[in-house]
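>> received
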Amino acid sequence: MTSRISYMGTKHELAPSVRAVIDSCQPGMLLDAFAGMGAVAESLAGERQVWTNDIQHFAHLASACRLADQHGPLDALKLGRMAKCLFEENRRRLREQNVDALKLGRKALRADDYTDFRVAFDRAQARTPRFEQAYGCFTKIYSHGYFSLEQCTEIDSIRYALEVLRGRGEITFAQFDWALLALGRATLRVANTTGHFAQFLTPGAANFHRVRKQFKRSVWKEWLGSVGAIQPVGLPDWRKENLATRSDSTTLLRDPRYSKRARVVYCDPPYTNDQYSRYYHVWETLVLYDYPRTSGQGRYRPTRFTTDFSLVSRVAGAFRQLIADVAATGADLVLSYPSNGLLHKAGGCPLALIKEAFSSARVATEIAHTHSTMGASKGPATSTVAERIYVGQA
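>> returned
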């Protein structure tokens, strides 16, 4: 049994049905070209080798650790002991420089009345965060938003501890990655959001108790719990033969170093006009830790990745190119796409496009499925649709 990182768009519920379709295809390695958190690849553990790919750094990190690292993470207690002093060192620097803001933040979290909460919260938010000679990327960018200022000092200080431990050679690069993955899981669990990083909750009279509850949660405790919870998938001998890449699908499928390795390519492309990078930007900063200039109410990173699969004017062309690129490798294609996907709204049909490139094309199965609407930005939070699994074979 493994502990997963469940996130928007994951295919855990559909994975058994997708796996059954993949089993009917030719033997050999499976490429999951839009892997996300790797649910479909995980379902194939021990059955066939898997190759996961995703353009997002954090999604790639999740698959590289859980599906392609042979050794697994450090023991949580051992890592906690190694990191504690370094964690406290960085947090002390941040606390000393942000004393007033932290006091006001704690006052807000003690307030039972919204007016009292708001006064203290606004005063804390008005203080410019300081982080001289300290790791302070999250303190600078995300405090009083996705996380409290106190939580940001914890995130930054865990990140500092891991960097120092890796730099000293006390943990390996792979152990660093596992610990960073656990920190990503912890940030999602404490985040002041509705379950994704597209935007944070702005405190109001109706929700300030919820915001206050999330802001009180300890990142350190959640991190240690996540270090112990997230485990590798399958056996070491299976994982060591797997691959994990970070690329857009078009570039990957045309790369001669990789293009002939997979015998089955599973594609689960974006299906709405919301750019998916909007939901990963906080995790991207956690991995890159590059102090980006952010913009907008969601404090988004600059130059976020955009895909033609989420543009109504380009989605048909993106599908046609993807299908042709898979066909050129000689692999079988397995494609998941919902009945309300953007391609259908643009007047396209996945089956018709598959027939253009493959001699055999069919709808292998159709499943009633509840889809997220990416945070309900344009209506209800979920919708029931028919998820269709298409197959193309030479």
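>> DSSP finds 17 helices and seven strands in the chain.
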